[in-house]
Design brief:
Length: about 280
């Protein structure tokens, strides 16, 4: 069975869905049966064994790179790695020590806010729960942004040259950067770099409007009233779910030493301002 040659290991809300769909179009790349196989980080899946895992890939004669995109693999150090959740770095290295690795990074506070809305969309808490309260309930909202800690754990098992780091704000979000970024990814994976995928728009995993989020969590009687509202009313700013600047500032203060460690490990500066307030909408 085909063994993977690469993994995209993170991060959540960093553009990995867009990247997976673009890379998966390459004729020399074979990806998993679904985007996130969640093999190395879920005990139940890991217990199925490597034969099951490798059976999720379908290589062709011209395949040169095989891999999958599970952002949760990045979260290898944290407070909630018990309860059926496994740290991934050591298991990945033991099974496939020669992998190429791809990591998508994003401004850590913006990433946490996006994760906050992701959990809300999934129904895990209502809009009345603030950002910091959500962090207490779901520590991964914060811990995925602990970039220095997480990268340090991975570097215990893989050398830095195996990693390709993409920065969401520079390499993924701008339209002009998408094709150059994909060329770098294809070169890193060892496939033909000149291939151009179709449909490179970034609208992936959208969380929906704030009105939709409030509708989802409203009581049934209120939902009936809200569904009858015309489209212009649904766009009113009164529906906005605001993120308190104090919550952003608290997270920024938490992340500053993490980003300093990340920059030290990478030998480069990140383009993120963790001191100035940022807009409350994604």
């Amino acid at each position: 069975m085909p063994a993977p040659t690469f993994l995209c290991i993170g991060v959540q809300k960093g553009g990995t869905t867009w990247l997976a769909r673009a890379v998966g179009q390459h004729p020399q790349v074979a990806t998993g049966s679904r985007k996130e196989l969640q093999f190395f980080n879920h005990r139940e899946a890991y217990d199925r064994g490597l034969e099951w895992y490798e059976g999720q890939f379908r290589a062709r004669r011209r395949t040169r790179a095989i891999g999958e995109f599970t952002p949760n693999y990045w979260w290898t150090e944290g407070t909630t790695t018990a309860n059926n959740y496994l740290g991934s770095a050591g298991r990945v290295a033991e099974a496939y020590p020669d992998l190429q690795l791809v990591v998508c990074l994003r401004h850590p506070v913006d990433r946490a806010v996006s994760a906050y809305f992701h959990h809300m969309k999934a129904g895990r808490y209502p809009p009345s729960v603030g950002l910091l309260e959500a962090v207490e309930r779901y520590p991964d909202v914060r811990e995925f942004g602990d970039y220095g800690t997480q990268l340090g754990a991975w570097l215990e098992h893989f050398p830095l040259e195996r990693f390709l780091f993409l920065v969401y704000e520079d390499d993924i979000r701008p339209d002009h950067a998408k094709l150059p970024t994909l060329r770098r990814v294809f070169e890193h994976l060892g496939v033909r770099p000149g291939f151009e995928p179709v449909d490179l728009g970034l609208a992936r995993n959208e969380r929906g409007s704030h009105f939709d989020l409030r509708l989802k969590h409203a009581p049934p009687r209120t939902q009936r009233v809200m569904r009858a509202l015309p489209a212009p009313v649904r766009r009113w700013s009164r529906w906005d779910i605001e993120i308190a600047e104090a919550d952003r500032a608290t997270l920024a203060a938490h992340y500053r030493p993490e980003i300093a460690r990340l920059e030290e490990l990478l030998g480069r500066s990140m383009p993120w301002d963790l001191g100035a307030p940022r807009p409350s909408r994604r």
